[in-house]
Amino acid sequence: MSMSSRPIKLLVCTQKVDRNDSDLGFFHVWLEKMASQVDSITVICLEKGEYKLPSNVTVLSLGKEYRISRIAYLFRFYYYLWQYRRDYDAVFVHMNPEYAILGGLPWRLWGKKVLLWYMHKAVNFRLWLAEKFVTKIFTASKESFRLPSKKVEVTGHGIDVDHFASRTENKPDNAWKFLWVGRISPVKDLETVILAVAALKKMRPNFSITLDVVGEPITNADREYKRTIEELVNKEAMKGIVRFAGGKKYSEMLGEYGTHHALIHTSRTGSLDKVVLEALAAGILVFTSSEAYAGFGDLVVRFSANNYEDLAQTIEKNMISGILDNTAERRNFVRERHNLNLLVYKIDDYLSLDKF
After folding, report:
1. CB 349 within 8 A of CB 34
2. What are residue 158's phi and psi, to 5 degrees?
3. Closest by Cα among 283, 2, 296, 249 to 165
4. What is the Cα–Cα distance from 253 to 275, expressed in whole angstroms?
5. For residue range 207-232, what is the model confidence (pLDDT) as tens digits?
6. How many angstroms from the chain centroid is the CA of residue 61?
7. CB-based contacts of 87, cutoff 8 Å, min separation 6
8. Strand order in the sheet with 9-17
9. Average pLDDT, stretch 292-300?
10. CA 117 centroid distance within chain
11. 244 versus 352: which is more confidently predicted?
Protein backbone atom coordinates (compact mmCIF):
# COMPACT_ATOMS: atom_id res chain seq x y z
CA MET A 1 0.00 0.00 0.00
CA SER A 2 0.97 3.66 -0.21
CA MET A 3 3.57 5.08 2.13
CA SER A 4 1.39 8.20 2.45
CA SER A 5 -2.33 8.71 2.92
CA ARG A 6 -2.25 11.38 0.22
CA PRO A 7 -4.54 10.39 -2.69
CA ILE A 8 -2.82 9.48 -5.94
CA LYS A 9 -4.41 10.53 -9.20
CA LEU A 10 -2.28 9.17 -12.02
CA LEU A 11 -1.84 10.00 -15.68
CA VAL A 12 -0.50 7.10 -17.76
CA CYS A 13 0.97 7.69 -21.24
CA THR A 14 1.38 4.59 -23.38
CA GLN A 15 1.34 3.42 -26.97
CA LYS A 16 -1.74 1.23 -27.00
CA VAL A 17 -4.55 -0.02 -24.76
CA ASP A 18 -5.89 -3.25 -26.23
CA ARG A 19 -6.09 -6.48 -24.30
CA ASN A 20 -6.13 -8.44 -27.58
CA ASP A 21 -2.91 -6.94 -28.95
CA SER A 22 -0.23 -9.59 -29.48
CA ASP A 23 2.59 -7.27 -28.40
CA LEU A 24 1.11 -4.82 -25.90
CA GLY A 25 -1.85 -6.75 -24.51
CA PHE A 26 0.05 -7.34 -21.26
CA PHE A 27 -0.20 -3.63 -20.40
CA HIS A 28 -3.94 -4.03 -19.90
CA VAL A 29 -3.09 -6.19 -16.87
CA TRP A 30 -0.64 -3.54 -15.65
CA LEU A 31 -3.43 -0.96 -15.73
CA GLU A 32 -5.75 -3.27 -13.81
CA LYS A 33 -3.15 -3.78 -11.08
CA MET A 34 -2.21 -0.11 -10.92
CA ALA A 35 -5.87 0.89 -10.66
CA SER A 36 -6.18 -1.15 -7.48
CA GLN A 37 -3.47 0.96 -5.80
CA VAL A 38 -4.41 4.51 -6.79
CA ASP A 39 -7.54 6.65 -6.62
CA SER A 40 -7.86 7.19 -10.36
CA ILE A 41 -6.02 6.71 -13.63
CA THR A 42 -6.33 8.76 -16.80
CA VAL A 43 -4.71 7.02 -19.76
CA ILE A 44 -3.51 8.82 -22.86
CA CYS A 45 -2.69 6.29 -25.58
CA LEU A 46 -1.80 6.61 -29.23
CA GLU A 47 -4.36 3.94 -30.08
CA LYS A 48 -7.09 2.05 -28.26
CA GLY A 49 -8.79 -1.24 -29.03
CA GLU A 50 -10.77 -3.58 -26.79
CA TYR A 51 -10.41 -3.06 -23.05
CA LYS A 52 -12.24 -3.81 -19.83
CA LEU A 53 -10.78 -1.79 -16.99
CA PRO A 54 -11.97 -0.76 -13.50
CA SER A 55 -14.37 2.17 -13.17
CA ASN A 56 -11.61 4.47 -11.87
CA VAL A 57 -9.76 4.27 -15.22
CA THR A 58 -10.47 6.67 -18.11
CA VAL A 59 -8.92 5.90 -21.52
CA LEU A 60 -8.27 8.75 -23.99
CA SER A 61 -6.97 7.97 -27.47
CA LEU A 62 -4.88 10.25 -29.66
CA GLY A 63 -6.71 8.66 -32.59
CA LYS A 64 -4.39 6.30 -34.45
CA GLU A 65 -7.26 3.82 -34.84
CA TYR A 66 -9.02 6.48 -36.93
CA ARG A 67 -5.91 7.11 -39.08
CA ILE A 68 -5.83 10.84 -38.35
CA SER A 69 -2.77 13.03 -38.95
CA ARG A 70 0.22 13.38 -36.64
CA ILE A 71 -0.62 17.05 -36.20
CA ALA A 72 -4.00 15.94 -34.86
CA TYR A 73 -2.22 13.54 -32.45
CA LEU A 74 -0.18 16.45 -31.12
CA PHE A 75 -3.18 18.74 -30.76
CA ARG A 76 -5.14 16.08 -28.89
CA PHE A 77 -2.20 15.32 -26.61
CA TYR A 78 -1.86 18.92 -25.40
CA TYR A 79 -5.63 19.29 -25.20
CA TYR A 80 -5.82 16.27 -22.88
CA LEU A 81 -2.90 17.51 -20.76
CA TRP A 82 -4.66 20.81 -20.19
CA GLN A 83 -8.26 19.58 -19.97
CA TYR A 84 -7.44 16.89 -17.40
CA ARG A 85 -4.61 18.69 -15.56
CA ARG A 86 -6.57 18.71 -12.28
CA ASP A 87 -7.39 15.00 -12.61
CA TYR A 88 -3.81 13.81 -12.07
CA ASP A 89 -0.92 14.74 -9.81
CA ALA A 90 1.68 12.30 -11.17
CA VAL A 91 2.58 10.80 -14.54
CA PHE A 92 3.68 7.30 -15.55
CA VAL A 93 5.21 7.15 -19.05
CA HIS A 94 5.40 3.63 -20.42
CA MET A 95 8.32 3.00 -22.80
CA ASN A 96 7.86 6.04 -25.07
CA PRO A 97 10.33 8.84 -24.18
CA GLU A 98 8.51 11.09 -26.67
CA TYR A 99 5.67 11.58 -24.19
CA ALA A 100 8.13 12.75 -21.54
CA ILE A 101 9.65 15.24 -23.98
CA LEU A 102 6.31 16.63 -25.18
CA GLY A 103 4.77 16.88 -21.74
CA GLY A 104 7.89 17.46 -19.69
CA LEU A 105 7.82 21.26 -19.50
CA PRO A 106 4.15 21.72 -18.55
CA TRP A 107 4.37 18.84 -16.09
CA ARG A 108 7.35 20.45 -14.40
CA LEU A 109 5.61 23.82 -14.30
CA TRP A 110 2.56 22.19 -12.72
CA GLY A 111 4.69 20.30 -10.16
CA LYS A 112 3.84 16.79 -11.41
CA LYS A 113 6.08 13.83 -10.68
CA VAL A 114 7.00 12.05 -13.91
CA LEU A 115 8.06 8.40 -13.81
CA LEU A 116 9.44 6.74 -16.97
CA TRP A 117 9.42 2.97 -17.46
CA TYR A 118 11.97 2.10 -20.14
CA MET A 119 13.49 -1.16 -21.38
CA HIS A 120 15.83 -1.10 -24.35
CA LYS A 121 19.59 -1.07 -24.84
CA ALA A 122 19.37 1.78 -27.39
CA VAL A 123 20.62 5.17 -26.16
CA ASN A 124 19.68 8.08 -28.40
CA PHE A 125 19.01 11.81 -28.22
CA ARG A 126 15.31 11.33 -27.43
CA LEU A 127 16.14 9.21 -24.39
CA TRP A 128 18.82 11.68 -23.28
CA LEU A 129 16.34 14.56 -23.53
CA ALA A 130 13.53 12.65 -21.81
CA GLU A 131 15.85 11.89 -18.90
CA LYS A 132 16.16 15.63 -18.26
CA PHE A 133 12.39 16.05 -17.86
CA VAL A 134 11.44 12.99 -15.79
CA THR A 135 11.88 12.77 -12.03
CA LYS A 136 12.41 8.99 -11.86
CA ILE A 137 13.23 6.08 -14.20
CA PHE A 138 12.31 2.46 -13.54
CA THR A 139 13.78 -0.40 -15.59
CA ALA A 140 13.91 -4.18 -15.35
CA SER A 141 17.69 -4.65 -15.30
CA LYS A 142 20.91 -2.66 -15.61
CA GLU A 143 21.20 -3.87 -19.23
CA SER A 144 17.76 -2.48 -20.02
CA PHE A 145 18.68 1.18 -19.48
CA ARG A 146 22.20 2.14 -20.54
CA LEU A 147 22.13 5.93 -20.22
CA PRO A 148 24.02 6.92 -17.04
CA SER A 149 21.59 8.64 -14.66
CA LYS A 150 21.12 8.99 -10.92
CA LYS A 151 17.36 8.81 -11.53
CA VAL A 152 17.45 5.13 -12.52
CA GLU A 153 16.18 2.37 -10.25
CA VAL A 154 16.30 -1.30 -11.26
CA THR A 155 13.01 -2.87 -10.20
CA GLY A 156 12.74 -6.15 -12.07
CA HIS A 157 10.13 -6.77 -14.73
CA GLY A 158 6.35 -6.83 -14.25
CA ILE A 159 5.14 -10.40 -14.85
CA ASP A 160 1.71 -11.57 -13.69
CA VAL A 161 3.14 -14.72 -12.12
CA ASP A 162 -0.16 -16.06 -10.78
CA HIS A 163 -1.63 -15.91 -14.29
CA PHE A 164 1.16 -17.90 -15.92
CA ALA A 165 1.46 -20.30 -12.99
CA SER A 166 -2.12 -21.37 -13.64
CA ARG A 167 -1.31 -23.05 -16.96
CA THR A 168 -2.61 -26.54 -17.72
CA GLU A 169 -0.09 -28.90 -19.30
CA ASN A 170 -1.08 -30.68 -22.50
CA LYS A 171 2.21 -31.88 -23.95
CA PRO A 172 2.72 -35.21 -25.78
CA ASP A 173 5.25 -37.59 -24.23
CA ASN A 174 6.58 -38.91 -27.53
CA ALA A 175 7.55 -35.56 -29.06
CA TRP A 176 9.56 -32.39 -28.52
CA LYS A 177 7.48 -29.27 -29.09
CA PHE A 178 9.43 -26.02 -29.17
CA LEU A 179 8.14 -22.45 -29.07
CA TRP A 180 9.63 -19.22 -30.41
CA VAL A 181 7.88 -15.94 -29.56
CA GLY A 182 8.57 -12.39 -30.70
CA ARG A 183 8.49 -9.86 -33.48
CA ILE A 184 9.73 -11.50 -36.68
CA SER A 185 12.70 -9.24 -37.28
CA PRO A 186 16.43 -9.63 -38.12
CA VAL A 187 17.45 -8.66 -34.57
CA LYS A 188 15.57 -11.73 -33.28
CA ASP A 189 17.80 -14.19 -35.21
CA LEU A 190 15.09 -16.69 -36.12
CA GLU A 191 17.27 -18.32 -38.79
CA THR A 192 19.53 -19.82 -36.10
CA VAL A 193 16.50 -21.56 -34.58
CA ILE A 194 15.31 -22.92 -37.95
CA LEU A 195 18.75 -24.35 -38.74
CA ALA A 196 19.07 -25.82 -35.24
CA VAL A 197 15.73 -27.62 -35.51
CA ALA A 198 16.74 -28.93 -38.95
CA ALA A 199 19.99 -30.25 -37.45
CA LEU A 200 18.08 -31.75 -34.54
CA LYS A 201 15.80 -33.62 -36.96
CA LYS A 202 18.86 -35.17 -38.59
CA MET A 203 20.25 -36.13 -35.19
CA ARG A 204 16.93 -37.77 -34.20
CA PRO A 205 15.26 -38.77 -37.50
CA ASN A 206 12.63 -41.02 -35.92
CA PHE A 207 11.51 -38.50 -33.30
CA SER A 208 8.65 -36.02 -33.61
CA ILE A 209 10.04 -32.48 -33.38
CA THR A 210 8.11 -29.29 -34.12
CA LEU A 211 8.72 -25.56 -33.81
CA ASP A 212 5.84 -23.07 -33.49
CA VAL A 213 6.72 -19.47 -34.36
CA VAL A 214 4.43 -17.03 -32.57
CA GLY A 215 4.73 -13.44 -33.75
CA GLU A 216 4.42 -11.18 -36.74
CA PRO A 217 6.59 -8.81 -38.80
CA ILE A 218 5.84 -5.11 -38.32
CA THR A 219 7.94 -3.10 -40.77
CA ASN A 220 8.64 -3.66 -44.46
CA ALA A 221 12.13 -4.84 -43.52
CA ASP A 222 10.55 -7.34 -41.11
CA ARG A 223 8.24 -8.65 -43.83
CA GLU A 224 11.19 -9.13 -46.18
CA TYR A 225 13.00 -10.97 -43.38
CA LYS A 226 10.01 -13.28 -42.91
CA ARG A 227 10.08 -14.15 -46.61
CA THR A 228 13.74 -15.06 -46.20
CA ILE A 229 12.86 -17.27 -43.23
CA GLU A 230 10.07 -18.98 -45.18
CA GLU A 231 12.52 -19.69 -48.01
CA LEU A 232 14.93 -21.19 -45.46
CA VAL A 233 12.16 -23.43 -44.12
CA ASN A 234 11.45 -24.69 -47.64
CA LYS A 235 15.14 -25.17 -48.42
CA GLU A 236 15.64 -27.27 -45.27
CA ALA A 237 12.49 -29.30 -46.03
CA MET A 238 10.93 -28.16 -42.75
CA LYS A 239 7.41 -27.45 -43.96
CA GLY A 240 4.98 -28.92 -41.44
CA ILE A 241 7.74 -29.03 -38.83
CA VAL A 242 8.09 -25.25 -38.55
CA ARG A 243 4.67 -23.65 -38.21
CA PHE A 244 3.98 -19.91 -38.35
CA ALA A 245 1.17 -19.24 -35.89
CA GLY A 246 0.99 -15.46 -36.30
CA GLY A 247 0.44 -13.12 -33.39
CA LYS A 248 -1.33 -14.35 -30.27
CA LYS A 249 -3.39 -12.45 -27.74
CA TYR A 250 -1.88 -12.03 -24.29
CA SER A 251 -4.63 -14.30 -22.93
CA GLU A 252 -3.72 -17.03 -25.45
CA MET A 253 -0.07 -17.25 -24.43
CA LEU A 254 -0.92 -19.25 -21.29
CA GLY A 255 -2.12 -22.08 -23.52
CA GLU A 256 1.00 -21.83 -25.71
CA TYR A 257 3.30 -22.34 -22.73
CA GLY A 258 1.14 -25.26 -21.58
CA THR A 259 1.45 -27.15 -24.87
CA HIS A 260 5.19 -26.76 -25.47
CA HIS A 261 8.19 -28.32 -23.78
CA ALA A 262 10.57 -25.37 -24.14
CA LEU A 263 10.97 -21.81 -25.37
CA ILE A 264 13.89 -20.98 -27.67
CA HIS A 265 15.01 -17.37 -27.35
CA THR A 266 17.52 -15.78 -29.74
CA SER A 267 16.87 -12.06 -29.41
CA ARG A 268 19.93 -9.82 -29.77
CA THR A 269 18.38 -6.72 -28.14
CA GLY A 270 20.39 -7.25 -24.94
CA SER A 271 17.45 -6.47 -22.64
CA LEU A 272 15.41 -8.71 -20.38
CA ASP A 273 12.65 -10.01 -22.63
CA LYS A 274 9.30 -10.49 -20.91
CA VAL A 275 8.56 -13.62 -22.95
CA VAL A 276 11.45 -15.44 -21.24
CA LEU A 277 10.17 -14.45 -17.82
CA GLU A 278 6.63 -15.46 -18.76
CA ALA A 279 7.91 -18.87 -19.85
CA LEU A 280 9.83 -19.27 -16.58
CA ALA A 281 6.73 -18.22 -14.62
CA ALA A 282 4.84 -20.91 -16.53
CA GLY A 283 7.57 -23.32 -15.43
CA ILE A 284 8.88 -24.39 -18.84
CA LEU A 285 12.46 -24.78 -19.99
CA VAL A 286 14.14 -21.83 -21.76
CA PHE A 287 17.09 -21.96 -24.16
CA THR A 288 18.60 -18.51 -24.70
CA SER A 289 21.65 -16.93 -26.31
CA SER A 290 21.01 -13.47 -24.84
CA GLU A 291 23.66 -11.88 -22.63
CA ALA A 292 20.87 -10.47 -20.46
CA TYR A 293 20.39 -13.87 -18.79
CA ALA A 294 24.03 -14.53 -17.91
CA GLY A 295 23.19 -14.18 -14.21
CA PHE A 296 20.23 -16.55 -14.24
CA GLY A 297 22.36 -19.63 -13.52
CA ASP A 298 20.58 -22.96 -14.05
CA LEU A 299 17.19 -21.31 -14.48
CA VAL A 300 17.88 -21.01 -18.21
CA VAL A 301 20.05 -23.01 -20.59
CA ARG A 302 22.45 -20.83 -22.53
CA PHE A 303 24.02 -21.45 -25.93
CA SER A 304 26.35 -19.49 -28.21
CA ALA A 305 24.69 -16.71 -30.18
CA ASN A 306 24.28 -17.25 -33.92
CA ASN A 307 25.49 -20.86 -33.58
CA TYR A 308 22.81 -23.32 -34.68
CA GLU A 309 25.06 -26.35 -34.15
CA ASP A 310 25.64 -25.43 -30.52
CA LEU A 311 21.91 -24.83 -30.08
CA ALA A 312 20.98 -28.22 -31.56
CA GLN A 313 23.51 -30.06 -29.39
CA THR A 314 22.46 -28.10 -26.29
CA ILE A 315 18.80 -28.91 -26.90
CA GLU A 316 19.44 -32.64 -27.37
CA LYS A 317 21.60 -32.86 -24.24
CA ASN A 318 19.14 -31.03 -22.00
CA MET A 319 15.90 -32.49 -23.30
CA ILE A 320 16.98 -35.97 -22.16
CA SER A 321 18.51 -34.82 -18.85
CA GLY A 322 15.36 -34.39 -16.77
CA ILE A 323 15.85 -30.62 -16.49
CA LEU A 324 12.27 -30.16 -17.76
CA ASP A 325 11.01 -30.87 -14.24
CA ASN A 326 12.56 -27.81 -12.51
CA THR A 327 9.22 -25.99 -12.61
CA ALA A 328 8.97 -24.61 -9.06
CA GLU A 329 12.48 -23.12 -9.04
CA ARG A 330 11.88 -21.17 -12.25
CA ARG A 331 8.49 -19.89 -11.11
CA ASN A 332 9.70 -18.85 -7.65
CA PHE A 333 12.58 -16.87 -9.16
CA VAL A 334 10.18 -14.78 -11.26
CA ARG A 335 7.78 -14.40 -8.34
CA GLU A 336 10.53 -13.04 -6.08
CA ARG A 337 12.29 -10.72 -8.56
CA HIS A 338 9.99 -9.89 -11.48
CA ASN A 339 6.50 -10.00 -10.05
CA LEU A 340 4.00 -7.43 -11.37
CA ASN A 341 2.56 -6.97 -7.87
CA LEU A 342 5.98 -5.94 -6.54
CA LEU A 343 6.52 -3.50 -9.42
CA VAL A 344 3.13 -1.86 -8.88
CA TYR A 345 3.89 -1.44 -5.16
CA LYS A 346 7.23 0.23 -6.03
CA ILE A 347 5.50 2.60 -8.45
CA ASP A 348 2.88 3.41 -5.84
CA ASP A 349 5.46 3.95 -3.09
CA TYR A 350 7.49 6.37 -5.20
CA LEU A 351 4.44 8.35 -6.26
CA SER A 352 3.24 8.49 -2.63
CA LEU A 353 6.39 10.18 -1.38
CA ASP A 354 5.80 13.81 -0.43
CA LYS A 355 8.92 14.98 -2.27
CA PHE A 356 10.67 14.19 -5.56
Report:
1. no
2. -120, 80
3. 283
4. 9
5. 899 999 999 999 999 999 999 999 99
6. 22
7. 9, 11, 40, 42, 58
8. 57-61, 40-48, 9-17, 90-94, 113-117, 136-139, 152-154
9. 90
10. 12
11. 244
